[in-house]
Amino acid sequence: MSVLTTEPGATPTDEEPPDSGERHRLTAITGLAALSLDAMASVAYGPEAIVLVLAAAGAHGLGFTLPVTLAIAGLLAVLVASYRQVIAAFPDGGGSYAVARTHLGRRTSLVAAASLVLDYVLNVAVAVTAGVAALTSAFPALHDDRLWLCLAVLALITAVNLRGIAESAKAFVAPTVVFVGSVLVLIVVGLFRSAPASTQAAAGHASAVADNATAVGTLLLLKAFASGCSALTGVEAIANAVPSFRVPRVQRAQRAEVALGAVLGVMLVGLSVLISRFHLQPVDGVTVLAQLAEASFGHNWAFYLVQFATMILLALSANTSFGGLPVLLKLLARDNYLPHVFALKADRQVHRHGVLALAVVSAALLVFSGGDTNTLVPLFAIGVFVGFTIAQVGMVRHWRLERGPGRRGKAALNGLGAGLTGVAAVVVTATKFAQGAWLIVIALPLLVAAFETVHRAYVRIGERLGLGRVPEHPHRERSVVIVPVSSLSRLTSEALTAAASLGDEVRAVSVCCPDPEDRAALHALERSWAEWDPGVPLIRLTCERRSLGRPIAAYVRAVTASEPATRVTVLIPETEPERVWQRLLQNQRGAVVAHAVRRETDAVICRLRFRLP
Amino acid sequence: MSVLTTEPGATPTDEEPPDSGERHRLTAITGLAALSLDAMASVAYGPEAIVLVLAAAGAHGLGFTLPVTLAIAGLLAVLVASYRQVIAAFPDGGGSYAVARTHLGRRTSLVAAASLVLDYVLNVAVAVTAGVAALTSAFPALHDDRLWLCLAVLALITAVNLRGIAESAKAFVAPTVVFVGSVLVLIVVGLFRSAPASTQAAAGHASAVADNATAVGTLLLLKAFASGCSALTGVEAIANAVPSFRVPRVQRAQRAEVALGAVLGVMLVGLSVLISRFHLQPVDGVTVLAQLAEASFGHNWAFYLVQFATMILLALSANTSFGGLPVLLKLLARDNYLPHVFALKADRQVHRHGVLALAVVSAALLVFSGGDTNTLVPLFAIGVFVGFTIAQVGMVRHWRLERGPGRRGKAALNGLGAGLTGVAAVVVTATKFAQGAWLIVIALPLLVAAFETVHRAYVRIGERLGLGRVPEHPHRERSVVIVPVSSLSRLTSEALTAAASLGDEVRAVSVCCPDPEDRAALHALERSWAEWDPGVPLIRLTCERRSLGRPIAAYVRAVTASEPATRVTVLIPETEPERVWQRLLQNQRGAVVAHAVRRETDAVICRLRFRLP
User: Where do the record's region annotations for Disordered lie (chains A, B) (predicted)?
Assistant: First the structure.
């Protein structure tokens, strides 16, 4: 550790110590594991959502599965391309918040931030409940304990993330690889079959296909498209968390983003092809992914492996929020929209307060929803689409201000993406309004209002502190140090020594309550004090009520009133116990006095910890 | 509030301000309500306990109810007389602890204290569960929620006692009067009947009388006596809490004690007479008191009133512990057997820490026993008998040392009482050993060991503090004040002013972490500092890991090592927010620095709270 003194008037030389936090940051691969699980896991419910909507139009409607999925894959490509540019343009992270703040104004950036925050929090709750729901459908005996299971999974993920994002990523690489690998193998094997290997799982369950087929209209296709867009949640996370990558940050993040898009697109389209090939129909109580696994592999160990990997990945996809949200909270804190504690970084690149805040709010959501998926899912995905739309509109503006080649094409691409996601946002909100989307419509403005309130408070505090202005010169005042004493010991001697070093005048005070024991003790103290003769007066403060701190605070106020040019300091001596349990033996008088003085006066409070010799 | 200065050498004049805490203390009547509910409530289960044991000998055994009860009443009279003397001899309270400490040695006094503590705590748990059990037998639908009901009742009693013992007493006078009144009326009315008015409640329940009557032997009578002695728990409480009474304390406490003995004795004997008169037999599921109420009043509103009053009084008899235990804890703390916090008194004569400690331990017991009476009752009453025995043996010693008239008679009385309660203690422990009394046999020595450990620690601390010896004279050392700064504002100016007033030399330090943002901010600070030129050097401390407090603590250690005759002080400035919620906006740096400095150095830590202008 080096020390460099800056004398007034000297110019400091520039030092560039190596940033040794790099090994706690992410590579492209670990970045995928830390931040993309949300998007990956949506292959478990994305195709299912599409198929469920199309099933309302009977078998004819189901025929549109592949086209709708291709449209979603197209939108995915547009989004990945957009965010690749966002990463390059905003290497400090923040995703749509950063884009909006630069190009669309303050209010819009807050709306983007609020929608991201809401969605990250909901993602944790939905992911954990979905994973546990998958577990309890395999083991129905656990159904009653699902809330405790959810909280346990949440605690596990929180603990891993408190150790650090790189640690969480390493921990989660294996399940990701297993899941992605098994789905890709599923697709390849299925392409070589002409008929399902087995339909055992779906047998005996009620079909979800409607009997009276409604016509396949634009509205139905739009709804299917919007439902399937839930597969796109989580694409933003990598762009939010660019600072968490190793140098060169932008390139690694871009690589991770493109890899995510590629893998996700292949999985979605591949599964959709298989759905068409096998003429799969949605069934109550069995997921489409389960049916596909069975159709490709047959009802054997591979089928169960896919189920198990899906369950684990669903639960772990909460990790995306833990990767993306704390960085966003830090940016908001840096811009004074959130308390500055969220910008504090502890060791190992962990945004501890952000992680803990997310864990607490998610736990509250879990308890409130009782571990039940159906309560939370309708709220999901709206916030992310709002974020997508704002980001791409911002990027359109970005390209208008740029001068490089191909900017018209890029702007058009972003405009198209913005249009598509905007439509998706509106459709999802409208279709899920009664089921709970109204909560989002209320919560979002409330969150924005909270950001504005915090911002106003900081601006006001900054003004009153005179931040940015050169303040008055410091000057020296006469100081009086007041030392509360209750008995005569080495501690008293040490306290008076410290006080004499700090102040021009020292006064010892002792509080006497109208209790015979107390009065006797005080008389004894005064006699010993007179014998000791330390050169410091002992002042007796009486009190009517049995309080310790108030008389001292009142005395401090009296001194300040009678001698205005004096700075009053209260020195509170305490022993430092040898062993930790002995803290219980301390009688808390110091804390009582400090509390009263802090609340009622402006005196400086000094705590002296005396280690017993 | 008056201030009296004691200059060294002057003799202080004696002041005797009126003790205005009197109105928060107890009169004889309110003393009964606050401290005797335990004893009063035992008429609900005392006669029942006797009758249940005697029923093993059939109807013949039941005939011995009245003689056994008269014996218990006689022991009650002896106890009341003893404790009347204890109150006079030990007006500081403490009951058997005080007696033992003066006359029987330290170890015995700790055994007395430990047994009292255990029994007070158990009393709370048993009383609350018994009251709630009475409630749930009237309303069986509440049975599943009984643990929450117990905790709610505990919270209510704790809250009332936190307001003050006099307040609790006033709150509980009414139920006491209703209960005592109804029982007395029950006895009077019953004496005028020759046969039970109704036996409706007992009909349909299985009789608890044994078919094959065993002979009525001495052992059976002893067991019945010992069981009935559970009615005597709570007689000690008034003697424990003498300081809580108004002046003249001794006379008021004695009046309350005698009143308690009289009322309790009349109730016990009266109920016993009625049991014999009506030839009552114990029945599963209906209490003896219920049967008596029905026999006297008939199955009408008066019957239900007695039930209801019993239920309330059982629950409230926990209040006795809240009255007696905190005073005992205070005495133990004063003698250094418990942490001194228990001796702290807040406003209104409330021993806050004692009340809270009792509430917490009782809540733990309740949760552990699941709100189930049967788990806890076997442990009950052993501690109190140990206390009774120790107290009376001590009083025998007391009279041997006295010179007054009639001391032989008084000593003989106490000796008899000691013998009787000693026998009761042994019998109860032996009969309930397997059911849980072994827990007490283990817990008591553990508690005594804990007291000794605390005492040893205090003695050691006192030696190292040099308590009782005249310490060194204080002297003045050169002081260096270190002020951590991160930005330039009014706060910085104020901090440097305070530091200049406190120290001979002031140094400002700023921690620079290897982060580009941090380095830029520090450069800006150093430039502004050079412009400002406050006359105080700004020292840059670098750190490798992202911590704020460690570099400052390391610098403090370096200064102390290089300049040994200097006292180093760290001044931490913080803004005092206008509104309470704005405390969330503070960035916790001050706390981080203070924590690191406190843990790693011996420097004095000063906190400056700056109210924004």
Answer: 1-23
